[in-house]
Amino acid sequence: MNRHQLGRWGEKKAAEYLEERGYNLLTQNYSLQLGEIDLIACKKEVIIFIEVKTRSSDYFGPPQSAVNFQKQNQLRKLAFCYLKENRQYDNFKKRFDVLAVRVRKNNCRGESQNGSYYNIEHLKNAF
Amino acid sequence: MLSETTSAALIGVKALPVSIEVDISRGLPSFDIVGLPDKAVRESRERVRSAIKNSGFDFPVKKITINMAPADIKKIGPHFDLAIACGILAASGKIVEDHLDDYLLAGELSLSGRIKVIKGALPLAEEANAVDKKGIVLPQKNYREGALVEGPEIIPVRNLCDVVDFFNQQEINCSPEAENEVITAQEYEVDFSEIKGQQEARRALEVAAAGSHNIMMIGPPGSGKTMMARRLRTILPPLKEKEALELTKIYSIMGLKEVQEGLIRDRPFRAPHHNVTRAGLIGGGRNPEPGEVSFAHRGTLFLDEMPEFKRDVLEMLRQPLEEGTVTLVRSEMTVTFPADFTLVAAMNPCPCGYYGDKRKECSCTVPRIKRYRSRISGPLLDRIDIHIHVPGLSVAEITDHSSGEASSTIRKRVLAARERQNQRYKNEKFNYNSELSGQKIKKFCQPETQGQHLLENAVEELGLSARAYDRILRLARTISDLEGDGAKKIKTSYLAEAVQYRSLDRGVQL
To answer: Is the pTM of this model over 0.90?
Structure first.
């Protein structure tokens, strides 16, 4: 599995994780020229923009440390565009979350369906 | 996941307690320090991160916020590293918090987790005592410095693991390199007995030492001005414990090596070169640091070739000469350093150096000599009580091998004279004759009738100013103290000697 696949896999896991917890997924991979928002969900009058980061080791730091200032700014801009297009969420509260997905390298292939091979850390209102 | 540790900020020679709050919460990993940290404190983030990691602990990948309170004083210096690191370790559960608050923490971390020597351990230890902490955790090399303060327990540490062990198991892994010894007698490498001839100058220095008067020596090159100035401190009484501590504190905040050996007992001798800057002489900088006048506290400040110093630099000496302290006002803070020194100035009588010399002719014109002397302003000269001519030595004096009186003998007389002054001024705010002024001179320096006549004559004949008149009375008081004369009225002979010490008031005579 290459980096790209790992990322997509992580996003899938993240989506499952959110749905299990009662989030209502609106869009996956909302992308513009600027970049993309991995997941957009809502729950009880709150619209949540979610960045999913997946890493197979902590060797270069944990996944969430990659969501730096530039990335945050990019997400803010994208969220702004999304809200412009979808005026029905104007009265919702807005929130940015980061979902950090960690996988043990050799196990994310094959039986990665099994939950014990990865863990998800949900950072609410990350920035 | 909140913890609190205590350290202290250094402001001049004082320390102010700073509480360091560490909050670790979920969120995107970050590490922020708020509460007016200086550059070195801001940079401590990187040192702390590496030191914790390299000491074998996990650095929490969470949102770390550090607050240093009170937020309005500037926190300067790397000694906050240790308190920050311990705060983080406590907030992440690696250090038991039970005793953490009983101790003040100070130490600079290296990336490996080693704790390096810091500046200002002495005022920090004092502060630990003042705020009723049980003790202070200090780098091993700073142990002796901290141990000068009676009261707080000093915990010497070499690295971060020592600190963690101390708080978790109450065991001290690290022992001090050496304990402070009690030294009573001090030894100087130089002695008054080495001075050849110069009876008059020796006497003047003795008077200067006895009354804590400032002195100016005027003489041709090679007459021994510098040599004598160096020996002035050897006839001053030994530093009292309190004075020694004041001095050590100044050296401590500059992190000078001597301090690591414990208390400084020798009176300092400082001889700045004449190209010294204002900041170098009286102290300065954005975060004010002491200058030569403070390093010479309770000792001798020797200005060789005084007319060569920049005029504005010399004028800066007025405040310390008057008050014994120097106050540095900067936009961010105002700091007062002690600067109670005896000024010893030396100059040539004229630009060529041989005016008044017996063997070599002077080649200067009178206006040139006047111009040269006028480089030292009246107000400054006014604060120098004794002016003494130091003539070149004759052949007989140079080849003479007999040695003069030893410093220890002179010191006894000086000590007795100072004791007499302390007795007399025990109800006053000052200690020495040199601090007498205005009304106090009238009160304590009454000349006898015959002496009054002599003084009137001197004022008339030599054209002395009212100011010089006061100086003469003060000096005569010191001379009488030195002679062990307890009489209330000052004897004529002492007044006559004092008049001799005002040679620069007489102007240039050909």
So the answer is: no
